[in-house]
Structure to design on (974 residues):
């Protein structure tokens, strides 16, 4: 192959993560139309996700880690198994190990780094490995078959990853670190001690302050590791993870300057002294520094792609702050973590019992946060990191930031304006109210999607999205901006407007609604929302062909999706009552399908670990035992919890369990904007906790008190009294009206508590509608509920009677085998899923 | 250049419009979607954010006209044509070839990682141009 002349040729030497990112970026920018792009990779396979090497050790296939995409083959010539071995800068050609010679117009060195193996006697013996490539891992895995003990030399991030891999291979695992603590670059002695304790609790033996003197061999292979003090650790296998060295030999050979600590010297465009040659990633040295993280490498790749396409991007160095989860332990290090700044002062929280260490470094004035170390609880990393980057004086005393969130306590409930700036809105991604408000103002955000994209708030479990929405609306209204309450890009309407359209126009399908009032194909926001509206008003079978594709997976398979892709099953136990025969039937099903069994907070039994193809057989048996769907999977009525009331309890004043059963059977299957929980207590002692429910009933001497819009969960809110001392018939009338009014008017995924907080007029308005019938809606609302009650049918019973539906309950459409992804251990006599291989964020590369 | 290696998956009618199924192709889990406009798409079934084999059970739709599926676990969306995650540019899943042949859906896994990666890609022609 030679340069084809007309189009300039870009040669990329190296196809690791950073080299591949450059290819991706060039393709994204359309460069392949103007340039010929040739990439060399030394390994036999295209680039793969090296950050997740341990996933490979735990069973993930090599092709699953691959970063190469089929369609790139049209745009990039990738030559694998062949490395560039020489560069002739005068002739502008590269030569590969196999003898290929290619002329270049631009050359990008992306040769990465090599693991540093300390010059010890025996370090090259069979049984010694490094932890860098898939081939390295294959070799380690092969050697581990005959090994009992494995030692990792190096207790940094990568060393601990390697230790995790060895442990996974079943070896007695040791980590040997020269420094007095683990992860010496990122954490301090205190953090290292807590980290060590937590790593040791996992069964890994840690040796710190331990210098390795030699590798002992016998019969031509590793038998032990000798420390400088003469002690010997018997081992069959040694993995070196003692740092990296830039692979800059190509540059040295062709006369390009390298940095003091290695790495090809580059400028802000990642250009070497030769304007036709660039270097990126771990083989490059920028301002005397080699970055051993993938994120700065990616940033460099983007700069070079941009430069080659005529742009003016530049690399200005990278922040090395990072947060990661290592063997389940949070570790974060940010800013001036080691208090190196003159006059820096530290505050330390060292909880050896709970395994939490937190250090904040404050400047000499005591006003600004400079950095910190967090081990075991890094929940507020984002906030703290933000304080460091902002560089502004803290508004609160630094000591208030120090304790972990669990100790510091949650923010106050109520409307968004009442929340403190530091209140965590999104606990999955550690996003505070202050961070969201700042992003809204700084970037002119106007939709929840933008806030999610910009701040990550609400992008994981989604439970805070309604709160984010309120916050956004509040901020925009305060700023005098018109608020767009569109459901999503497909419907310029609110959920309430769509509910009105469906009701008034008697719409029966999503397609009809989309055609008349929307655009595009729909999405995961509008489809379930519309499915819920259709179900609320028509109560059609949710798995009918025209509805099934609208349903979230829980509704589609009538079970609750768990993190490993299996489902949990909850039969309805109205009011929490269960006959011994039913309890035995549930137990037998759990035993026969080996389901992890747990009592829920709603007085039901949850059975976990059911594979999708097992659900019909499980439900066949439950239905045969007289049980029905508990709708734990739906945005629907869940449970009406109860105490035993006057039937058994010497304090009870009404028959609370009978009322609970009646209410649960009346409202079962009612699809709503969000889940609905309820409870009935037989006296004022409130054993059923009715005041924390969406609707709760408490017995009085005269009748029932009805409370509405309570909430447990992340932002607890007490239910509010709606009606006092009413009889059962009145209670049910009010409840019919209340629930239908909520179903009609609430936003998507808006719980009753949030809905109430938003309603103009609050509980007084609800009372006017429900009790006083000021809007004249009562008859209509009651009729709608009567239709629901009359048309209710257990979805599992309906599904079991429909062979076409049952055929959808399988994992592989073309094979009977089970999904091999989930794996299990046992704990306290039951099955427990082992963690799946979760790709992580940026890491030491 | 080797020809694509088509594997029979199921009857076209077995996939309800605007939903997906999961096929096992030579040990690899592939999610196959049939959209209402008649198009078919195949991507990896493993959700790269969680490792769970669930993408075939996601809700399909579009974002700004880009056809996509949303992971049922944490709702990240993936472009059905390229496999790119629309919520995190650093993440993507592999895309595979899919066609209808005699009323049957067939999938060819596009393999990366072969010795000669460029030559092993079916349905794409490559050479120095």
């Amino acid at each position: 192959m030679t340069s084809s002349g007309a189009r300039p040729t870009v040669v990329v030497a190296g196809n690791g993560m950073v080299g591949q990112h450059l290819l991706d970026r060039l393709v994204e920018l359309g460069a392949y139309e103007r340039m010929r792009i040739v990439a060399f990779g030394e390994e036999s396979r295209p680039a793969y996700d090296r950050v997740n090497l341990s996933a490979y050790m735990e069973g993930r296939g090599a092709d699953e880690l691959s970063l190469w995409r089929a369609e790139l083959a049209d745009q990039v010539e990738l030559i694998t198994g062949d490395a560039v071995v020489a560069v002739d800068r005068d002739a502008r050609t590269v030569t590969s190990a196999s003898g290929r010679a290619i002329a270049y117009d631009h050359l990008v060195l992306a040769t990465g780094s090599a693991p540093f193996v300390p010059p010890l006697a025996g370090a090259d013996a069979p049984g010694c490995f490094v932890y860098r490539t898939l081939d390295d891992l294959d070799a380690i895995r092969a050697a581990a078959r005959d090994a009992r003990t494995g030692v990792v030399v190096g207790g940094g991030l990568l060393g601990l990853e390697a230790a995790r891999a060895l442990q996974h291979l079943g070896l007695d695992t040791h980590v040997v670190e020269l420094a007095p603590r683990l992860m010496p670059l990122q954490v301090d002695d205190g953090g290292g001690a807590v980290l060590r304790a937590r790593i040791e609790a996992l069964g890994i033996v840690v040796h710190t302050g331990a210098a390795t003197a030699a590798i002992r061999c016998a019969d031509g292979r590793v038998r032990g590791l000798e420390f400088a003090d003469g002690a010997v650790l018997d081992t069959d296998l040694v993995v070196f993870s003692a740092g990296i060295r830039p692979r800059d030999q190509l540059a040295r050979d062709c006369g390009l300057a390298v940095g003091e600590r290695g790495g090809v010297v580059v400028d802000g465009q990642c250009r070497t002294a030769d304007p036709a040659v660039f270097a990126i990633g771990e083989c490059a040295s920028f301002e005397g520094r080699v970055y051993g993280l993938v994120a700065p490498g990616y940033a460099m790749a983007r700069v070079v792609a941009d430069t080659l396409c005529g742009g003016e991007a530049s690399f200005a160095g990278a922040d090395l702050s990072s947060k990661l989860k290592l063997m389940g332990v949070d570790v974060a290090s940010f800013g001036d973590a080691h208090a190196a700044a003159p006059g820096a002062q530290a505050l330390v929280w060292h909880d050896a019992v709970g395994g939490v260490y937190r250090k904040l470094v404050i400047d000499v004035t005591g006003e600004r946060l400079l950095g910190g170390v967090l081990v075991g609880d890094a929940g507020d990393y984002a906030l703290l990191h933000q304080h460091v980057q902002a560089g502004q004086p803290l508004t609160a005393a630094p000591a208030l930031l120090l304790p972990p969130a669990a100790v510091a306590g949650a923010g106050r409930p109520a409307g968004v304006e009442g929340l403190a700036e530091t209140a965590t809105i999104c606990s999955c991604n550690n996003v505070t109210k202050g961070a969201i408000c700042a992003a809204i103002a700084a970037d002119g955000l106007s939709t929840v999607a933008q806030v999610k994209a910009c701040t990550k708030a609400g992008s994981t479990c989604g439970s805070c999205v309604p709160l984010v929405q309120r916050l956004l609306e509040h901020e925009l209204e305060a700023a005098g901006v018109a608020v767009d309450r569109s459901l999503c890009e497909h419907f310029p309407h609110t959920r309430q407007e769509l509910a009105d359209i469906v009701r008034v126009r008697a719409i029966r399908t999503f397609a009809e609604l989309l055609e008349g009032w929307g655009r595009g194909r729909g999405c995961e926001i509008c489809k379930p929302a519309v499915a819920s509206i259709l179900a609320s008003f028509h109560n059609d079978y949710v798995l009918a062909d025209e509805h099934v594709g609208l349903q979230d997976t829980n509704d589609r398979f009538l079970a609750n999706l768990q993190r490993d892709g299996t489902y949990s099953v909850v039969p309805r136990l109205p009011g929490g009552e269960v006959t011994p025969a039913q309890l035995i039937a549930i137990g037998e099903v759990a035993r026969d399908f080996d389901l992890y069994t747990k009592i829920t907070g709603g007085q039901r039994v949850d059975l976990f670990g059911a594979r999708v193809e097992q659900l019909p057989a499980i439900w066949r048996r439950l239905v045969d035992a007289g049980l029905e769907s508990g709708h734990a999977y739906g945005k629907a009525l869940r449970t009406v919890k109860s105490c035993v009331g006057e039937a058994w309890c010497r304090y009870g004043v009404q028959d609370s369990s009978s009322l609970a059963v009646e209410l649960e059977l009346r409202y079962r299957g009612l699809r709503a904007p969000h889940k609905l929980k309820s409870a009935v207590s037989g006296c004022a002692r409130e054993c059923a906790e009715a005041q924390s429910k969406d609707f709760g009933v408490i017995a009085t001497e005269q009748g029932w008190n009805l409370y509405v819009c309570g909430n447990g969960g992340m932002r607890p809110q007490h239910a509010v009294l709606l009606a006092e001392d009413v009889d059962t018939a009145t209670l049910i009338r009010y409840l019919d009206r209340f629930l239908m009014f909520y179903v009609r008017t609430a936003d998507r995924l808006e719980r009753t508590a949030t809905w109430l907080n938003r309603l103009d007029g609050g509980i007084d308005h609800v009372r006017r509608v429900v009790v006083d019938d000021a809007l004249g809606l009562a008859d209509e609302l009651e009729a709608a509920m009567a239709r629901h009650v009359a048309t209710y049918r257990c979805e599992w019973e309906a599904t079991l009677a429909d062979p076409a539906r049952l055929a959808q309950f399988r994992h592989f459409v073309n094979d009977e085998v089970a999904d091999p992804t989930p794996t299990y251990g046992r704990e306290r006599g039951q099955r427990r899923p082992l963690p799946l291989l979760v790709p992580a964020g940026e890491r030491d590369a | 250049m080797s020809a694509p290696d088509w594997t029979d998956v199921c009857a076209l009618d077995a996939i309800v419009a605007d939903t997906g199924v999961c096929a096992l192709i030579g040990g690899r889990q592939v999610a196959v979607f049939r959209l209402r406009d008649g198009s078919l798409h195949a991507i990896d079934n493993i959700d790269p954010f969680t490792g769970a084999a669930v993408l075939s059970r996601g809700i399909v739709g579009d974002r700004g006209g880009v056809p996509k599926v949303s992971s049922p676990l944490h709702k990240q969306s993936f472009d059905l044509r390229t496999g790119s995650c629309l919520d995190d540019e650093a993440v993507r899943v592999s895309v595979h070839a899919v066609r209808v042949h005699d009323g049957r859906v067939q999938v060819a896994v596009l393999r990366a990682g072969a010795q000669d990666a460029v030559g092993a890609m079916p349905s794409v022609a490559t050479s120095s141009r």
Remarks:
- Residues 113-129 of chain B have pLDDT under 50 and may be disordered.
- Chain B touches chain A through 73 residues (CB under 8 Å).
